[in-house]
Amino acid sequence: MGVHERITTTVSTKGQVILPKAIREQKHWATGTKLIVEETDEGVLLKAAPVFAATNIESVFGSLRSTKPALSIDEMNMVISEEAKRRARIDTNIVVRLLTADDKKQAKAARSIVDGDEIFLGVTVLLEAEWVLRAGYGFAPDEIARALRGLAGLPGMLVEEPAHMALALDWMEHGMDFADALHLARSAQCTEFLTFDRRFAKRAAKLDAIPVVVP
């Protein structure tokens, strides 16, 4: 699409407008993308809203306080290995230690790594971190979602598939397993999601997602 090319669209009776496909593809605005509507001197400006709200290291450091003894690195790895093969970009235990701050030496090192640096936060790391925080520490889904959003909002934090991750965290707070929510969020371009898990399908039916079908 040319820079100066103009395309018209029509406002519906409900105040809705359809954005041309070429523009959506150029801007990578997938279904569910939240847009900021801003009035300017030249008209109305649309721009993608940040997926995660900005945070700071003080609000993230130690944001998940546990009454349980600090998990060792071996114990974290044990929890992870019970659910899936361990994969890491920045290691999962760095994320967990940063959020729990339950081992002073390692927490200080984790904070030093993350604070002010550009960090890539992979999907698999966040998935493993959720497993450890839930199965190892016993934190509730809303506590974990709040902490992971805070982590994702740190300056310099590059989250892999941020829109999918944000959607999965929202769905986790509504009762869906985080792994299931992530599978579903990453399948948004498909016509349906097939599973034998009836509970997953029942929970997904209450959400604004593609159909989850039990064969």
From TrEMBL:
Gene3D superfamilies listed in its UniProt record: 2.10.260.10, 5'-nuclease
MF annotations from Gene Ontology: DNA binding
Domain SpoVT-AbrB: 9-54
Source organism, top-level taxon: Bacteria
Coiled-coil boundaries: none
SUPFAM superfamilies membership: AbrB/MazE/MraZ-like, PIN domain-like
Family matches, as NCBIfam families: lp_hng_hel_AbrB
Annotated protein name in UniProt: PilT protein
Organism: Sphingobium chlorophenolicum
